[in-house]
Amino acid sequence: MARDMISTWNRSQADEDAMGATHAPIWRRMIDVGAPPDLRQSTVLDYGCNQGGFLRLLYDRHPFRSAVGIDIARESVARAELLKGHRPIDYRVGDQAAALGQTFDLAFSHEVIYLLPDPAVHARDIKAALRPGGAYVAAIGCHTDSGLWPRWRSLIAETSSIPIYDHSLEDVSKAFAETGFSVAVRPLALDAFMPFPIGSAYFPKVMDQLRYYSTDKVLFRFVRTP
Questions:
Q1: What gap in Å lies between CA 182 and CA 223, rounded to an integer?
Q2: At what angle do helices 13-34 and 53-61 cross, to 10 degrees?
Q3: Is residue 54 a contact partner of residue 76, using CB atoms and an 8 Å limit?
């Protein structure tokens, strides 16, 4: 069942607008380790695209044939459309990849799965939207195996416009494996300097941030089997 549409994911418009710059080093790492070098004949899906920054960055580094970004946040999708420029990207409001009526060679999501009530439902939706052999690269750091999650769950709930859910890495792995995907995982292992926000409620200590980006935040690669 489709979820209700919202205006923006973050209740604060300023924080919503700032997410692109904050996430850019993570997106670059996702692209470096998760995207084939030649996407010129590929179709790409960004599930939970927000303001569209990931697909813009991906296209500028590895031009693709076409892409679709979907999100339940109406104003964020409108902003993504405004910013896409010449790039062959179509941004749409929605949360059902299968309802787009096309299949994709490659799909991505960044910190979306913890916002979905049932990973198995998501796995079936993504399977329907991927061609056989297509890959879905999903970044997830908000999960119950992270030592920061109890703190983060409370903090995120204060700013999110939608509910959040408690999924373990095993929950996610099992959901996709049982849906017909091969499952592989690796740490994000961010290859960049990340500014350390002194006094951050999310990272009280430097080691919290280092552990998060080197261990807690992972990339899944789900490949749809024929």
A1: 5
A2: 30
A3: no
Beta bridge partners of 218: 140, 187
Q: How confident is the model at residue 20 (pLDDT cuts 50, 70, 90)?
A: low
Sign, Cα dihedral of 174, 202, 73, 88: negative
Contact 189, 141 (CB under 8 A): no
Sign of CA dihedral 117, 58, 128, 168: negative
**Closest Cα partner for 108 from 51, 34, 42?**
34
Tokens of 72: 């339940």
Question: What pLDDT sits at residue 1?
Answer: 39
CA 90 to chain centre: 17
Give strand ranges (E) for the chain.
43-47, 66-71, 89-93, 104-110, 130-140, 181-187, 218-224
Could you give the C-alpha distances from 215 to 53, 156, 162, 186, 209, in angstroms and in order?
Answer: 25, 20, 27, 9, 10
Tens of pLDDT along 48-67?
A: 999 999 999 999 999 999 99
Distance CA 130, CA 150 (A): 34
